[in-house]
Each structure stands twice: as C-alpha cells, then as structure tokens.
Design brief:
The chain is an alpha/beta fold. It has 15 helices and nine strands. The protein folds into three domains: about 200 residues, Rossmann fold, CATH 3.40.50; about 80 residues; about 70 residues, Winged helix-like DNA-binding domain superfamily/Winged helix DNA-binding domain (Arc Repressor Mutant, subunit A). The longest helix has 24 residues. The chain is globular, with a radius of gyration of 24 Å. About 30% of the residues are buried.
C-alpha cells in the first residue's frame, strides 16, 4: 500500500489539503478579472493551490498560463520562460500551433526542439538584440490578444515573481504594469515566497506594482481541515486514531502543510502494521521529523555569523522576549543593542525572521523547535 501523505513535491487531487475557501475565492477572482498577490513562506503549498485552481477554472472555460520565474535570472531569460509558458498553454507543438505562436509573438523566433525523453516544446530567440522592448511588449500582450480573439477570460500565474527585483533595471516591471493595467479580461496572479523582495515590489509607493492587486496572504491550515484530512487518509488504511491523537497531530503540525504531511507520512510508515496511533507515537514521529530536517537547518546555521546564530537560538528559547532589553542581551551574551539591530535586519532579509509588531518570530517555527531541542 502506498503512503497517502505526500510531501516535498507538488500535490494534486486526493493528496491536496482541502483549502476549499481559498480555492473558491481565487476562482471567483479569476472569473472577475481580479489581479491577486499571494505571499507565503516556503512549503506552504502555494504552487499546489494555484495549480488546483487553474485546473478548475480551465474546465470552466478560462484560458490559463503558468510561468515559474525562479530560473528567470535575467530579462532575457524572463522572455524565454514566459514565451514557453504561453506557447505551452496552446497545446503540443505542431505546425498549426507554430503559426499561432508566430502571430502572437511576431518579434520572437520560435523553433520546436525535442527533449531527451522525446517530448517536444518551443524555444525562442529574437534578433537583433536591440528589439528587446518590442519583443517584451508583444509577449506581454499575447494572452490578452488570444483571450479577446476567443472571447474568453484568461488567467496568468507568475510563480516566484520576486525574482524580477534582481534584474539590472526595472524595464520589465514597468512594461508589465503599463500593459497589464488595461487587460480587463485577464487575471494576473503573482506568487512569492521571499518576503523582503516581494514587499519591495508591491508595498513600495515608488515601484510600478504598488497597489496593483488584491493581497491574499496564504495562512495556516484550519485545524478542522487538518483533522478531517488526516482522519480520512488513515481510515482508508485501516489505522485507528482516537480524537485526542487527531487533535495532537493538528497541534504538532501547527497548520503547516509541509510539516503536517511529513509528520503524518512518518506516522503512517511507523504505525501501519499495528493499526493504532498513540500520543507517544506522535511525539516520536515529531522528533524523527526534526532529525530529518536537521541537515537543512545545520546548513542554514553554518551560513550565519556567530552573533546571528546566538540571536536565533536566544529567540527560539524566548520567543516573547523584548530583544533590546538588557537582561536578554546579558543572558545570551549578545552585546550591544545596535549590533543586535543589525543582526535582526540581516536575518529578516534572509527570510529567517519576521517582525510582527514588537516581536521577532521565525518564518519556520519548526526551525525554532529544532533549535530548542538541539
């Protein structure tokens, strides 16, 4: 029997946590042509969620495009990735599709290439290089143009959108905002996982995308959703879970999709034969999970200065503390408040900490738990 709890990869269908409210809200936004900005920390299931939504609205007649911008490290790479995403949405490469692509991107030069496994897809180039702006403009207009021709609504998703902040200039950013703001029949959805970069794009009044869409932070899973999903999956395997164990699993997973899946994956492996899970099993699985993640956490720590490490450990042990108070600084030998302020800024930029009012909290609460048990 296959373990029903999948982690570390995109999940779809029965393996996907039932974010019913989020799915319904996003589907409505897409049909209404609303632009949406979705942020969450890594491993919260943004990509799985949006692909579930895209599958749903596609069946309802919406044209959909999904572009992962994580590899788009330059403006030129952005054009290549987005052009491939748009062409992929048209179907498998054929002469008919090639003709449509040439019409949608008149300044780009498409060619069909065969990958190692025999799959065909488009690659793009443009000549001469000084027509970048025209090529970009054609590309950004393409989905709107197609939707208008087919008299349909459309949705374009840019995953890891914060990567465009790293470009040499804001040409792509400005052109996107200028063109997209007139597209009433296209919903653009921007996903991001690096808070400090994502914040620059959408919260800075001096940047093109300021106030350009509806913000939709992706929160933790509701306790009742976790309990329902976990109960269903284990019952299909004939494993019994008392109510207190279900509540404990939801509590230990903290509503985090990745860690809750991983915790349940371990429990399923450990307890399938005996067909019963006890509170002790949950605690053992939690410790095993932290041990598995320990290698990743060690790598993160090794990239920090000694001061930054000390500060993280101190905040893990005393999360509600006033960080600039003398007793806290003295207890953990952290030095002056000015040096701590600098360390905090760096840890926030590295997406390890967030500031919530006067508190500094871990983006990954299980990193804090691992530090406590270390």
């Amino acid at each position: 029997m296959k373990n029903p709890f999948v982690y570390g990869e995109e999940v779809h269908g029965d393996a996907f946590w039932n974010r019913t409210t989020d799915i319904q809200e996003l589907a409505r936004d897409i049909h209404n042509g609303q632009n949406v900005i979705i942020f969450s920390a890594r491993r919260y299931g943004k990509t799985s969620l949006i692909k579930t939504v895209l599958e749903r609205v596609r069946k309802e007649g919406v044209l959909t495009v999904y572009a992962d911008l994580y590899p788009a490290i330059t403006k030129e790479k952005f054009i290549e990735i987005y052009a491939r995403a748009v062409s992929r949405s048209l179907g498998k490469p054929t002469q008919k599709i090639l003709n449509i692509v040439k019409r949608l991107f008149p300044k780009l030069i498409p060619k069909i290439v065969i990958r190692g496994e025999g799959d065909a897809e488009f690659e793009f180039d443009y000549e001469p290089r000084n027509v970048f702006r025209t090529s970009l403009s054609d590309l950004l207009q393409s989905v709107h143009k197609r939707a208008k021709e087919e008299k349909k609504a459309a949705c374009v998703v840019f995953d890891e959108f914060q990567e465009i902040v790293n470009y040499a200039d804001d040409e792509v950013e400005k052109e996107m905002r200028t063109i997209f703001q007139s597209h009433r029949n296209v919903s653009y959805i921007f996903l991001g996982s690096k808070k400090h970069l994502f914040g620059k794009l959408f919260q800075d009044p001096n940047r093109p995308f300021y106030k350009s869409g509806k913000h939709m932070p992706l929160g933790r899973l509701a306790t009742e959703e976790v309990i329902k999903h976990v109960r269903e999956k284990f019952s299909l395997s004939g494993v019994s879970l008392p109510k207190e164990v279900l509540s404990l699993i939801a509590q230990r997973g903290e509503g985090h999709p990745y860690y809750t899946q991983l915790l349940c994956h371990i429990l399923w492996d450990e307890c399938l034969e005996k067909k019963l899970i006890t509170p002790k099993d949950v605690e053992n699985a939690l410790n095993k999970m932290l041990k598995r993640e320990g290698e990743v956490y060690e790598t993160v720590l090794n990239a920090l200065t000694q001061k930054q490490k000390q500060l993280l450990v101190a905040l893990a042990l005393e999360p509600q503390v006033k960080v600039y108070s003398d007793p806290f600084l003295d207890k953990y030998h952290l030095g002056s408040s000015s040096s701590i302020q600098k360390a905090l800024q760096i840890l926030i930029r590295k997406d390890l900490l967030d500031r919530e009012n006067d508190q500094f909290v871990f983006q990954d609460s299980f990193f804090a738990l691992w530090l406590q048990k270390r």
